[in-house]
Amino acid sequence: MASWSALVVDDDAGIRQSLRLCLEADGARVLGVGTAPAALEALDRARFDVVLLDLWLGKESGLDAIPELLHKQSDVAIIVVTAFATFESAVEAMKRGACDYLPKPFTPDQVRASTRRALESMRLRQRLADAQHRLEQAGVDDEPFETENLAFRRLLEQAVRAAASDAPILLRGESGTGKNALARWLWQHSQRKEGPFVSIPCATWDGASRLVEAENGTLFLDEIADLTPDAQARLVSGHHDARLIATTSRNLEEEMRAGRFREDLLFRINVVTLAVPALRDRPEDLLPLARHYLARAATRQHRQVYELSDSALRAIATYSWPGNLRELRNAVERSVILSPGPRIEVDDLGIPAAPSPAAGQPSEVALGADVSLEELEREHIARIIARAPTLEAAARTLGIDASTLQRKRKRYGLT
């Protein structure tokens, strides 16, 4: 059996030694303590998979310690051990959060059977949590990494170099920009691609589990700013051979100054930082992405090949997409499900129709329409100028110098 950890809480030193020998023979790393306060301190210092807890610790009831132990490490499996086994005490132990009940005297086989059941139950809960997370993140592996956007192309070039290293990587960016998919891509192109990829939604993780599973692989912490203070402390103090990749949609420096995020943890994860751009900053990729999602959605929904109407293309090109890739993907998926026919209209997407352009503003030209390259260039430049805070910023986005942009503005009559 793979290495695991156990905490034995019993006021009888002889019992602690007996359980230690039995559990170590089954591959466990074992710590024995004699009181409930000592057990709580132990859980502050280290992670344990199983706690074997005596029903009576001197004059104190071990049952009273169960909620506190679970507060420290919510996923630890607690087995109550007692020489005074009764139906009532067993029921009460389960109500308080224990997973099993082991009466004294016990044999080594009984101890091993109980701890193995506890470990299997814990791993099953973890697999179910992983499955739920994968459902919530459905589609993150469906992101294409082809791009016409200069900034995103540079990001991918940086990602290639970062993947080849073993340094921690922090992916920053708004929610829905594809950070999860990029994290998996980094793992698949790393030296640890043969090892596990352990994905943890930080909002529901207490920091006490899953580190061992990520050994020799990659530990992916989704939205690391959501970690509790206890989980942050355990992550900093834990020692494991796993490549760390984390995401955040929040400003970690601000979180640190507000006292919500540990400075030492920020220093640990902020070795290589990749800033994933918002979808609104990748206008060249909007329509190719929409068509990609459309083809994949039609396949998943077992529908005939769909196409986007001209008005739908214009709406996609002009909408701001605050939910980024996730919003675009969901809108296209919804349109395939609800559209009565093979042509997707704006109403099917559930986004605003493109406004009529004012003088000097973007027209209704769309990629793929029957227009000249000159018309497409005018359209693109007009949209970038309309969105950019300054002409210099617009020139940088377009990849040209400011004087060239001025000449094109004059040529196309753009104010």
- Please state roughly what percent of the residues sit in beta strands, choosing from under 5%, 5-15%, 15-25%, 25-35%, 35-45% or over 45%: 5-15%
In total, the number of domains comes to 3
Query: What's the average pLDDT?
Result: 84
Shape: elongated
- Computed CA radius of gyration, to the nearest angstrom: 28 Å
Helix coverage percent of residues?
40-55%
Tell me which CATH architecture of the largest domain applies here. Answer: Orthogonal Bundle
Structure, briefly:
This protein is of the alpha/beta class and about 425 residues long. The protein is about 45% helix and about 15% strand. It has helices at about 15-25, 35-45, 65-70, 85-95, 110-135, 150-165, 180-190, 230-235, 250-255, 265-270, 285-300, 310-320, 325-340, 345-350, 375-385, 390-400, 400-410; strands spanning about 5-10, 30-35, 50-55, 55, 60, 75-80, 100-105, 170, 195-200, 220, 245-250, 270-275, 305-310, 345.
Structure description:
The chain is built from 17 helices and 14 strands. The chain has helices at 13-24, 36-45, 66-72, 87-96, 108-136, 150-164, 179-188, 229-237, 252-257, 263-269, 286-300, 310-318, 324-338, 346-349, 373-387, 391-398, 402-412, and strands spanning 4-9, 28-33, 50-54, 56-57, 60-61, 77-82, 100-103, 169-172, 197-201, 218-222, 243-248, 272-275, 307-308, 343-344. Strand 1 (4-9), helix 1 (13-24) and strand 2 (28-33) form a beta-alpha-beta unit. Helices cover 46% and strands 14% of the residues. It has 415 residues and is of the alpha/beta class. The protein has three domains: 4-131, Response regulator (Rossmann fold, 3-Layer(aba) Sandwich); 147-277, P-loop containing nucleotide triphosphate hydrolases (Rossmann fold); 281-412, Helicase, Ruva Protein, domain 3 (Orthogonal Bundle), CATH 1.10.8.60. Helix 6 (150-164) crosses helix 7 (179-188), helix 11 packs across helix 13 (324-338) and helix 15 crosses helix 16. A five-stranded parallel beta sheet has the order 2-1-3-6-7, sandwiched between helices. The longest helix is centred in the first third of the chain and has 29 residues, at 108-136. Mean pLDDT is 84; it is low at 135-140.
